[in-house]
């Protein structure tokens, strides 16, 4: 269903938007560049607004006809609704006329019953149509947003964060759906109001105008309130967007937060957004309470003014039962459109806000298809050609690439080299069409495969990540795995290639992610390969293997065009063409020998770094020797023993898997390889404890006044209605009634008392709801931030974002609104039952069985509806996860041309979600029809009993009983609807509280901590029989490690992949707790201090540089603990001072989500600046220079040597040359300490280290 409707809308919308963009473009060109910035801004706003209305118009064209059939049902329902008071008038006339035959009374009673039943049927057919159309609109717009997110350009992507896009899909599409459901009320309500007033005029003459005046006064007040609430809602949505965006970043960079002990700083930022969001909500809810009070009191106000004017203008005007209760029945009908109108206005306002937001997103600049001309493959033509190219990231941005002239012949290997930030990755982006083309012509021939610098891995099996939508060809698949050095990894994954990979490749090491990303590209058999530094994240010997087997002259891609960005000098002699980039320009171009012979900057660079490169990598002869010597043992030591800090998570699959016994080995491979926990749906009715939990957070101090206010409000209502019946039965003396003024005064006082009660209850419930949601959000945030890393590896971020967005939104608004409605109608029902039983005590015999039947139908429905709500919630999380994943990997998806497959995937997930949603609202209609039938039976009973007892009953009491029983159908429906809403949404409390039960890490701080202020003073580290397991029952990641590191020592940690190098670092930071043994820092057992006390006093520079959106200063110092001078000093030492000084906002430069507006190398330097700022006595480096060029690497190493001279430094090294001058080197092998001595002594011993050094050409 989703696919068909989305396609229709998308085509129409796309055509309209294109046409609009072309018009505005031509106009802009005609005006030239004279338009001021202000005018440009106004035009942009107008464009966004008009595009929102354009979307609405397109939706109306597509879904209008079906929607109109529902409108027809609404008109017929209205006809029946207005017939009922006329029949009531006839019935009251019959009761008054003692001579009327009895059959007439029975006829009128059955007519009322029949008309009520027909009204119910047509009303719910109309509601069914509206919900169906609403669901289709929601589905269509979701598909539209998804498609748009696949085509927006980089500049737009920076302004539209993942969190904002998820919010468009979750909140804004729902607002559009609500608009469809309640839209008709906006125009039908005024017609219904006019008809009511016409019939009232018939009864009361010109006095009805007083009622019109009251309505006219109520309307502007509520229009004003709706407008103010709309503004407040925009404010609230803005802060909600900010909060969700920040939560998304926190979940993405949770490991960094834990390493740096930054959770509190980010927690405060989230709570800052939350507080502003709740303040806007509180103001909005108080205004809403005023609106509800005015509308709920409208029945009384209209009756009061009309009856008051009627009796005061003429003494001869008498209020008899017929006039009073037919008028009251009409006023009660009037109440429905009056109450629906503000809701319709409110949903319309919210829909306009959402349309504006959707319009703004759909107006974002798209990647132009003409950026790159794709031509069919032909061996005689250049594979890639750029003539005099100038490119920038945004339409108005400064050029990042200038004077680019490149021609790449078919089948050649091109290497792109240059410093950090010189534009190497941008060049590949330009070839992919990801950049704005200022001038030039770019041609790419044949199909393209792309390997990004930071591997993008899907939350799917390893096999699905490599196949990427293609069919599996066993021989080629096997060849690709072998070439990309993945076969040894398969041996150690629990379900081989059927193992599920976590979000963003959480349970793979940096090197494994990069190899999977490369394998995906190789499997494609594309014509052109764009490889953005794929060898930086892998060990030197694995890099050589991949170059030899995949990229090099003898690799599987030898006949393909390969453009390789690299920092490895050893690969350059084998390149057919080398492009040297400096500040976005190609300064030199030619083969390796040509460039050396020119003796320019490149030649100097090679000479300067050839020594270190020679140390790091073997000569080509040695390379061939080492590659031929690669064996399984070089790679395959149990992955669970090595957990690289970058998210080298062997643990994640391990945490969802026990050690497999012989009996279990038969189990399904898919189950073995499962990693993430799907969102689970609870079953059965909502437990009473949930309500208790919710009301406990509100507090007894607020609950007791709420109950009292409801009782007071309903007592006032009952009193003024009964007072009316007494007034109607008052005998007429000389054509008038006595004490009219007194009766009117009492009636007025009781009515006003009820209005004050309504306002008090709604405000109290709103405030109670805000108190509860504040508590629940705070608990959720604390529970998530206190969870260990294993929790984030096995819980998809979509599940968590769903809790923080949709579920918290339900607790904020839906539960209080449902409670207001439910309590109001429950007390109203009590009032009706009391009145009917006062009039005809025998009605009690009918009310009792009807109540039992009602309770049965209701309980049967609520359980079903509740379960469907849960299933719908659970199937919603994968939609957000998929959106999240798509937005982050959009460039890869586009490069491979996989957009149609991903769109189908998104559609199928949306459809799956709707299969739970559709039965839910159909069940609601089923329930409403059944319940209203029960209510109509009560009308029939009250009418027949009145006919039977007409001799003893006064017309006033009959009118009171029958007119109130007519309200029962509506009241019963609303009670169940409200009850269901509360039950459905209280599930959100259940889902938010789920994470209170999950395991938590150790306390952040200990109250009675005796930690010295300057600890650690020396930086000595001691391991005593230290052992580490990722989970009980699994192999030891580290075994019996006993060693001491003295103060100021520099220790390198080396070993093959999987030896346990990073596990050691994780142990020091207590990311994983010791399974046995102890670690002492400055003779203090680290297990005896709080996690933040430990993590804030030692520093790590991780492999994956993670930045958060916010200022550069915040990224360096979130607690504002350092002065600007200290921050600048750290930037200078990290070689970033010149770069930051050149930025317009300097330290306040806004980093985009994930730090995407900085290059990977620059982000790594920011991480170095963080370490320099903290300047702790212990520094851990985890392959921290993998993403930078050799020159920058040398600068970093020299900075570390000078600035951390007094510190203990532990370096997990892939490049052995970086640690050859260290005090000592620790060699790990299969989780055990194999060797520990100075580099020279280890080489002399000719053990494992000697073999590794020899493989790297260092000896």
What does this structure look like?
The protein is of the alpha/beta class and 1259 residues long. It is 63% helix and 10% strand. The chain contains 40 helices and 22 strands. The strands form five sheets. The protein has a six-stranded mixed beta sheet, with helices on both faces. 54% of the residues are buried.
Entry keywords:
transmembrane, 40 helices, six-stranded mixed β-sheet, 10% strand, ATP binding, ABC1_TM_dom, alpha/beta, EC 7.6.2.3, cell membrane, 1259 residues, elongated
Give a summary of the structure in a few sentences.
The protein is of the alpha/beta class and 1259 residues long. It catalyses: leukotriene C4(in) + ATP + H2O = leukotriene C4(out) + ADP + phosphate + H(+).
């Amino acid at each position: 269903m989703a696919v068909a409707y989305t396609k229709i809308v998308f085509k129409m919308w796309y055509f309209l938007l294109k046409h609009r963009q072309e018009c505005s473009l031509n106009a802009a060109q005609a005006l030239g560049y004279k338009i001021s910035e202000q005018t440009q801004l106004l035009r942009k706003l107008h464009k966004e607004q008009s595009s929102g209305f354009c979307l609405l118009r397109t939706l109306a064209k597509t879904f209008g006809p079906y929607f109109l059939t529902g409108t027809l049902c609404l008109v017929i329902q209205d006809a029946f609704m207005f017939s009922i008071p006329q029949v009531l008038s006839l019935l009251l006339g019959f009761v008054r006329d003692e001579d009327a035959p009895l059959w007439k009374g029975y006829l009128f009673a059955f007519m009322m019953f029949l008309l009520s039943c027909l009204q119910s049927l047509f009303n719910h057919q109309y509601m069914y149509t509206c919900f169906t159309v609403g669901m289709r609109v929601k589905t269509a717009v979701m598909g539209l947003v998804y498609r748009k997110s696949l085509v927006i350009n980089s500049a737009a992507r920076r302004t539209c964060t993942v969190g904002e896009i998820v919010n468009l899909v979750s909140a804004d599409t729902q607002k559009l759906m609500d608009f469809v459901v309640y839209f008709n009320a906006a125009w039908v309500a005024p017609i219904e109001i006019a008809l009511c007033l016409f019939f009232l005029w018939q009864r009361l003459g010109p006095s009805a105008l007083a009622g019109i005046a009251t309505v006219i006064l109520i309307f502007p007040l509520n229009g004003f309130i709706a407008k103010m609430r709309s503004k407040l809602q925009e404010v609230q949505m803005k802060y909600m967007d900010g909060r969700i965006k920040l939560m998304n970043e926190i979940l993405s960079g949770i490991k960094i937060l834990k390493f740096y002990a930054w959770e509190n700083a980010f927690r405060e930022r989230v709570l800052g957004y939350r507080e502003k969001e709740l303040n806007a909500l509180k103001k909005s809810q108080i205004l809403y309470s005023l609106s509800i009070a005015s509308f709920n009191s409208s029945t009384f106000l209209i009756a009061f003014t009309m009856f008051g004017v009627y009796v005061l203008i003429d003494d001869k005007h008498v209020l008899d039962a017929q006039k009073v209760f037919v008028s009251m029945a009409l006023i009660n009908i009037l109440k429905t459109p009056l109450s629906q109108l503000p809701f319709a206005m409110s949903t319309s306002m919210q829909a306009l806000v959402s349309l504006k937001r959707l319009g703004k997103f759909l107006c974002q600049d798209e990647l132009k298809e003409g950026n790159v001309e794709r031509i069919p493959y032909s061996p005689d033509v250049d594979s890639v050609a750029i003539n005099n190219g100038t490119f920038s990231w945004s339409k108005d941005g400064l050029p990042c690439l200038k004077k680019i002239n490149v021609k790449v012949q078919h089948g050649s290997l091109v290497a792109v080299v240059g410093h950090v930030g010189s534009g190497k990755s941008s060049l590949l982006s330009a070839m992919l069409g990801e950049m704005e083309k200022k001038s030039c012509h770019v041609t790419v021939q044949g199909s393209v495969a792309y390997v990004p610098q930071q591997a993008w891995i899907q939350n799917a099996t390893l096999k699905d990540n490599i196949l990427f939508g293609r069919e599996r060809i066993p021989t080629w698949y096997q060849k690709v795995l072998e070439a990309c050095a993945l076969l040894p990894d398969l041996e150690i994954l629990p379900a081989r290639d059927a193992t599920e990979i976590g979000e963003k490749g959480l349970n793979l090491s940096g090197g494994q992610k990069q190899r999977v990303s490369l394998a995906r590209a190789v499997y494609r058999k594309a014509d052109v390969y764009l490889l953005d530094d794929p060898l930086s994240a892998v060990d030197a010997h694995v890099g050589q293997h991949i170059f030899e087997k995949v990229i090099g002259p003898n690799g599987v891609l030898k006949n393909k065009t390969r453009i390789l960005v690299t920092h490895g000098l050893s690969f350059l002699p084998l390149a057919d063409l080398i492009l040297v980039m400096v500040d976005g320009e190609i300064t030199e171009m030619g083969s390796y020998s040509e460039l050396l012979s020119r003796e320019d900057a490149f030649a100097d660079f090679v000479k300067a770094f050839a020594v270190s490169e020679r140390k790091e990598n073997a000569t080509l002869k040695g390379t061939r020797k080492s590659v031929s010597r690669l064996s399984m043992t070089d790679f395959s030591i149990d992955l669970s023993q090595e957990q690289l800090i970058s998210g080298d998570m062997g643990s994640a699959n391990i945490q969802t898997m026990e050690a497999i016994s012989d009996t279990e080995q038969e189990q399904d491979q898919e189950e073995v390889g499962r990693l993430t926990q799907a969102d689970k749906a609870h079953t059965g009715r909502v437990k009473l404890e949930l309500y208790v939990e919710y009301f406990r957070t509100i507090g007894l101090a607020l609950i007791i006044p709420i109950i009292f206010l409801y009782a007071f409000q309903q007592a006032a209502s009952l009193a003024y209605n009964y007072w009316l019946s007494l007034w109607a039965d008052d005998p007429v003396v000389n054509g008038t009634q006595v004490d009219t003024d007194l009766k009117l005064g009492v009636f007025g006082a009781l009515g006003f008392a009820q209005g004050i009660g309504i306002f008090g209850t709604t405000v109290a419930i709103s405030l109670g709801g805000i108190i509860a949601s504040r508590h629940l959000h705070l608990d959720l945030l604390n529970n998530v931030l206190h969870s260990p890393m294993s929790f984030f590896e096995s819980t998809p971020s979509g599940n968590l974002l769903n809790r923080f967005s949709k579920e918290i939104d339900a607790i904020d608004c839906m539960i209080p609104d449902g409670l207001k409605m439910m309590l109001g109608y429950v007390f109203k029902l009590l009032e009706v039952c009391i009145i009917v039983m006062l009039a005809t005590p025998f009605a009690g015999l009918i009310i009792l069985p009807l109540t039992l039947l009602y309770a049965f139908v209701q309980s049967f429905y609520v359980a079903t509806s509740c379960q469907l709500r849960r299933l719908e919630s659970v199937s919603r999380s994968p939609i957000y996860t998929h959106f999240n994943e798509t937005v982050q990997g959009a460039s890869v998806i586009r490069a491979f041309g996989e957009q149609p497959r991903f769109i189908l995937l998104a559609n199928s997930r949306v459809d799956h979600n709707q299969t739970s949603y559709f039965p839910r609202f159909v069940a609601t209609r089923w329930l409403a029809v059944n319940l209203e039938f029960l209510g109509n039976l009560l009308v029939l009973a009250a009418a027949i009993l009145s006919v039977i007892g007409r001799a003893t009953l006064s017309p006033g009491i009959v009118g009171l009983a029958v007119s109130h029983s007519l309200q029962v159908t509506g009241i019963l429906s609303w009670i169940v609807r409200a009850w269901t809403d509360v039950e459905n949404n209280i599930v959100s409390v259940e889902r938010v509280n789920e994470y209170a039960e999950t395991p938590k890490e150790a306390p952040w701080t200990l109250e009675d901590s005796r930690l010295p202020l300057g600890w650690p003073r020396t930086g000595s580290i001691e391991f005593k029989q230290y052992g580490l397991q990722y989970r009980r029952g699994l192999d030891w990641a580290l075994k019996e490690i006993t060693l001491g590191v003295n103060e100021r020592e520099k220790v390198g940690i080396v070993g093959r992949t999987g030896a346990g190098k990073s596990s050691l670092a994780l142990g020091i930071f207590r990311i994983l707790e010791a399974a046995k043994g102890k670690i002492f820092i400055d003779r203090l057992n680290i297990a005896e201090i709080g996690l933040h006390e430990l993590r804030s006093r030692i520093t790590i520079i991780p492999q994956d540089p993670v930045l958060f959106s916010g200022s550069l200063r915040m990224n360096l110092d979130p607690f504002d603990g350092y002065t600007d001078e200290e921050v600048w000093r750290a930037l200078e030492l990290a070689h970033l001072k010149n770069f930051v000084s050149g930025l317009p906002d300097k330290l306040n430069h806004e980093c985009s989500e994930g730090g995407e507006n900085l290059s990977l190398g620059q982000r790594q330097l920011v991480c170095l600046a963080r370490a320099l700022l903290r300047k702790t006595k212990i520094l851990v480096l985890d392959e921290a220079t993998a993403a930078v060029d050799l020159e920058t690497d040398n600068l970093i190493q020299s900075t570390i040597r000078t600035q951390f001279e007094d510190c203990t430094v532990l370096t997990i090294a892939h490049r052995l040359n970086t640690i050859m001058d260290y005090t000592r080197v620790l060699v790990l092998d299969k989780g055990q300490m194999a060797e520990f001595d100075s580099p020279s002594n280890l080489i002399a011993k000719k053990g494992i280290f000697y073999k590794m050094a020899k493989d790297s050409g260092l000896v």
